[in-house]
């Protein structure tokens, strides 16, 4: 393992790899140019990072200045980030999907002086707001033909191609190199490394200040908890590096451990890229795993007959084998032989579509439905679930490679304390650490709180909000509801999501939604019912299943009415809702629903860039339809 210590900073990680693990000429980054995958060495990465550093030092950028990035995952992101980090500047990554108003807010709130942009669309977005961003001095396009875009007369910034910066400073002088090394030595662990703006589901986005120590320590303890990651791994990166999860779980882990990073071309080409790159590790979100699960089930059972029977038998065999192994039992010769047949006939074909080399996938960003995790476990593909927030760098807990408890987010990482606090009395129910782990321990649920090395420095320029989030005893309040189950942390829901019905019953939407998501007909589900007599839902159907079942044309999804009123489709959906409702308590069951024609949309402000539904906005936007559900529901019961 690399020599990470309390003096390490983000820019020292990669240089430590070159010094102790890999030769400079070995491959670090992989990306696709045209039809071919191109490899970039550690040496070339560091040279280009030095070029970025030399350029900004020449422009007068100093330690603590904020420099922005609004670019898809790519080698350019790495050159720019490494280049600014080693001179003590602060990375402010902006989600490419944010609106012009949100982009302008972040640029102004953080005081960004320069911003790297990844494509024509993002370039135009920045140009539209640049005149009102007084601190912004440089816009740096990382793509060709940006000169064709006319710069508005009122925009007073210098536009310089990223390729020109790299070419201009390709040969960094001895004096420049010495200045860069001096700057790098002055970057301290307690210095802010990055400002990451929260999604803002309930208000104005806040800039989370994460230090070099936050990031490096988080990586160090995660590698301790998952010691199977080594320098031979190839990660496939597709989640946005503007989000803390991918930044830490892929980028920083690879910088610390010397793993290769291959950048996927796009979400649409992810399946193809997996087959080409053949990754050994991937960070992912539950939605991707749910889609793989749904397609595999559909493909294996479609048409019935012998093929479907073999598929079902294989899953049942894989389940029995997994359960035996996880219980510490010997599966026996007969079950092991059956598992070998299932592997050859079914499992290997599914694994081939992921490239055939996956050791495991790390799932984060949302709760993974228990049945989906078990499905991958039955196939023999490990899914390690993690939990954390932007404010916690992000990892607070992660599944151990050798110990799987489905429906939980793993063991607490070393060096921090995680508490469960009663929501009403504020009494702390339990405090657990990595070392107090007991696989038989369970406790009541409450708000999850944390203190230790993973907690942010605070919100940028927002002392009142910082004091509200971090109490006098240094506990950061996550706003998540959870408990400990079999020694592992289990997240129940968000505190702000909690529905209290008209009779005072508490309903946590996430676990209820996950039960209904077992239906292959449902892609997304949004529960409603706060201060109401019963639960209703807005349902997003699985478009592919819906289209095939009712032979729908694309024009069906372009109709003006946001909700589907076709009685046959409503009856079709109701069959699954009624069947699944039997698994829930009566007060948790959906009594009425509306089927939304299209998914919730980022551009319309319905969801955040991390795909979390903005409850207040959705309930306000569809208030009329929601009220109709309750009027219809009351009539049905009367």
Write up this protein.
The chain is of the alpha/beta class and 638 residues long. It folds into 3 domains: 10-187 and 226-269, ANL, N-terminal domain (Rossmann fold); 286-452 and 471-494, Luciferase, Domain 3 (Luciferase, domain 3), CATH 2.30.38.10; 498-637, 2-Layer Sandwich (GMP Synthetase, Chain A, domain 3). Helix content is 39%, strand content 21%. It is built from 20 helices and 28 strands. The strands form 5 sheets. The protein has a 9-stranded mixed sheet with strand order 2-1-11-10-12-13-14-15-16, sandwiched between helices. Strands 7-6-5-3-4-8-9-20 form an 8-stranded mixed sheet, with helices on both faces. Strand 25 (522-528) and strand 26 (535-541) form a beta hairpin. It is globular, with a radius of gyration of 25 Å. The chain starts with 9 loop residues before the first helix and ends with a helix.
């Amino acid at each position: 393992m690399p020599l990470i210590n309390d003096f390490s900073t983000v820019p020292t990680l990669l240089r430590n790899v070159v010094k102790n693990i890999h030769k400079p000429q070995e491959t670090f980054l992989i990306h696709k140019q045209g039809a071919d995958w191109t490899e970039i060495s550690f040496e070339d990465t560091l040279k280009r990072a030095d070029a970025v550093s030399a350029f900004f030092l020449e422009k007068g950028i100093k330690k603590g200045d904020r420099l922005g990035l609004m670019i898809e995952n790519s080698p350019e992101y790495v050159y720019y980030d490494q280049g600014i980090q080693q001179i003590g500047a602060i990375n402010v990554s902006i989600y490419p999907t944010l609106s012009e108003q949100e982009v302008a807010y972040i640029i102004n709130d953080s005081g960004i002086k320069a911003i790297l942009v990844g494509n024509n669309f993002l370039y135009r977005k920045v140009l539209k707001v640049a005149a009102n961003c007084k601190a912004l001095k440089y816009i740096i396009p990382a793509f060709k033909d940006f000169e064709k875009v006319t710069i508005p007369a009122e925009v007073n910034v210098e536009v310089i191609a990223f390729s020109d910066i790299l070419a201009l400073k390709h040969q960094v002088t001895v004096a420049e190199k010495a200045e860069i090394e001096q700057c790098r030595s002055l970057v301290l662990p307690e210095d802010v490394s990055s400002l990451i703006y929260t999604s803002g589901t309930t208000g104005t986005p806040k800039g989370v200040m994460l230090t070099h120590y936050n990031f490096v320590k988080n990586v160090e303890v995660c590698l301790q908890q998952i010691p199977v990651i080594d320098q031979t791994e190839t990660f496939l990166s597709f989640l946005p590096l503007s989000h803390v999860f991918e930044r830490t779980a892929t980028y920083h882990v690879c910088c610390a451990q010397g793993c290769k990073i291959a950048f996927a071309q796009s979400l649409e080409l992810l399946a193809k890229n997996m087959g080409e790159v053949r990754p050994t590790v991937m960070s992912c979100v539950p939605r991707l795993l749910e889609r793989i699960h749904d397609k595999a089930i559909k493909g294996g059972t479609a048409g019935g007959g012998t093929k479907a029977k073999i598929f079902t038998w294989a899953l049942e065999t894989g389940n029995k084998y997994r359960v035996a192994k996880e219980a510490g039992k010997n599966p026996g010769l007969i079950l092991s032989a059956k598992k070998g047949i299932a592997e050859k006939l079914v499992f290997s074909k599914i694994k081939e579509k992921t490239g055939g080399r996956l050791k495991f996938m790390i799932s984060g960003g949302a709760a993974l439905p228990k049945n989906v995790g078990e499905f991958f476990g039955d196939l023999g593909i490990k899914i390690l679930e993690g939990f954390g927030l932007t404010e916690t760098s992000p990892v607070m807990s992660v599944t151990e490679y050798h110990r799987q408890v489905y429906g939980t987010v793993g063991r607490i990482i070393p060096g921090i304390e995680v508490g469960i606090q009663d929501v009403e009395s504020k009494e702390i129910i339990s405090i657990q650490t990595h070392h107090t782990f007991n696989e038989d321990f369970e406790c009541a649920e409450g708000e999850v709180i944390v203190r230790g090395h993973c907690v942010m420095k605070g919100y940028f320029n927002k002392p009142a909000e910082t004091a509200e989030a971090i109490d006098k005893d240094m506990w950061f309040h996550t706003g998540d509801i959870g408990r400990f189950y079999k020694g592992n942390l289990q997240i129940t829901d968000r505190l702000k999501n909690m529905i209290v019905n008209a009779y005072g019953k508490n309903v946590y939407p996430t676990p209820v939604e996950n039960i209904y998501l077992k239906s292959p007909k449902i892609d997304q589900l949004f529960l409603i019912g706060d201060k109401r007599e019963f639960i209703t839902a807005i349902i997003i159907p699985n478009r592919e299943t819906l289209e095939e079942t009712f032979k729908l044309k694309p024009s069906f999804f372009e109709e003006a009415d946001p909700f589907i009123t076709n009685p046959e489709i409503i009856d079709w959906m109701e069959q699954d809702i009624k069947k699944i409702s039997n698994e829930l308590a009566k007060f948790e069951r959906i009594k009425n629903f509306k089927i939304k024609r299209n998914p919730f949309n980022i551009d319309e402000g319905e969801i955040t860039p991390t795909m979390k539904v903005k409850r207040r906005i959705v309930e306000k936007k569809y208030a009329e339809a929601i009220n109709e559900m309750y009027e219809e529901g009351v009539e049905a019961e009367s």
